[in-house]
Automatic annotation (TrEMBL):
This is Glycosyltransferase. Belongs to the UDP-glycosyltransferase family. The lineage of its organism: Eukaryota, Viridiplantae, Streptophyta, Embryophyta, Tracheophyta. The keyword Protein transport does not apply. Keywords: Glycosyltransferase, Transferase. Gene3D superfamilies: Glycogen Phosphorylase B. It comes from Castanea mollissima (Chinese chestnut). InterPro entries: UDP_glucos_trans (IPR002213). GO terms for molecular function: UDP-glucosyltransferase activity.
Amino acid sequence: MAEREENVVLFPFMAQGHIIPFLALALHIEQSKNYTVTLVNTPLNIKRLRPSLPPNSSINLVEIPFSSSDYGLPPNAENTDTLPYHQVIQLVEAAISLKPSFKKLIENLTEQQGNPPLCIIADIFFGWTASIAKELNVFHAIFSGNSGFGLACYYSLWIHLPHRYVDSDEFSLPDFAEASSIHVSQLAFTIKEADGSDPWSIFHQKKNLPEWVKSDGILFNTVEEFDHIGLLYFRRKLGLPVRPIGPVLLSTKRQARAGKEGGISSELCLEWLNTKPLNSVLYVSFGSMNTISASQMMQLAMGLEASGKNFIWVVRPPIGFDLNSEFKSNEWLPKGFEERIKGSKRGLLVHNWAPQVDILSHKSVSTFLSHCGWNSVLESLSHGVPIIGWPMAAEQFFNVKLLEEELGVCVELARGKSCEIRHEDIVEKIELVMNETKKGNEMRRKACEAMEMIENAMKDEEGFKGSSVKALDDFFSAALSMSKKTKTEQNI
Ligand code: UDP
């Protein structure tokens, strides 16, 4: 294979939901372009990433030193997995201290290679990398693993703090008229309580978003054809090139694990799915970070049982239990539930972590009950699987809005981790989507349309390039032309 040219440096925030799309992007660039790819992160994350790379991968994994205890965080807290939610912002703030080491790292790469990297692609929380890139004459982009729509709603909320000085529970985003009104129950709890002191909004207003405009553009892991409104918001707001280049997704094999053993092997899971009829299984998972309350879990179990449908449910300890605690079926689930489910072979309870992409790509799977994290949404729509939405946090509430109101591929079941939910309502939504109802059929049709949009966006054939392929080409052309200009100027 020919020697790889130019270096592309990728730098995700230290959370599974950020590292996964960055790793997918790294592999995508390695596969589709002849560039060297360097993925930077803190030592523990790099150690975890190593086994996720294919044996023949030439991606460089580079460590940047970080000691969490220097910032009042527990020792070895290099990933949000090991942190309670309220401390995540502390990790984001602490990461700003990586500035000098990151700059040094880019200088060292420049020295080793005789040229600065072609570009730096950094996380949405690492706006500060744009100043470093400017200083060192390197092309820079922010990469968002969120939807354009979800991030646009969030961005608007962050910059319009305080948000709750409105006299009704329903309000419009002042600079995002394309989105319908937001209900207070769709706000993440930090924003909801805001009296002007939400640490996330303060961080973004003061330290992060003002740096974004120094970037040379924003890349989104999304598709222009179904996320146009949100992308438009950023084009208007930032006046920067906004390029949807997705979806870039990881296969199950490459999924960086959430630090725990998977609850079931892919083989066993697929073996179980193979015994089920076409489009008969509901897959239930709330992502890598969220979990529901004990009473919600009880109702969900009762709803799944009463629905009579086949299901795979990834069960994580309910709120209030240690995330690493043993599986306590007797305490968390209705009496005899696990035995009944096992006996009837109707359900598969998976502890903590399931091979999600393999599951969603199986022909027996009909519907996904999901918290609507953007990776999960993309994985579902890539396989034409409609969604029952139960958003839990962050921009997931707005993802559901996009999916339900604009794309018609989702119905919302519940909101948040403290809402009251009745098993009868769960059964009703499952039947609405999984049965041959007018709504269910319509959702399946629209989910298949979304799948086609995704396939087209990523098509790279002789005579046809999809919108996401063109956007990534366009990004690298801009980076190459800046690099050429810099080299010419330096030679003069
Ligand atoms: N995931 C998985 N198995 C699980 C739970 C999650 O493989 O049991 C993967 C999932 O495929 C997705 C990622 O973890 O790629 C979760 O990202 P998402 O944006 O959906 O949600 P987050 O975890 O960031 O809230």
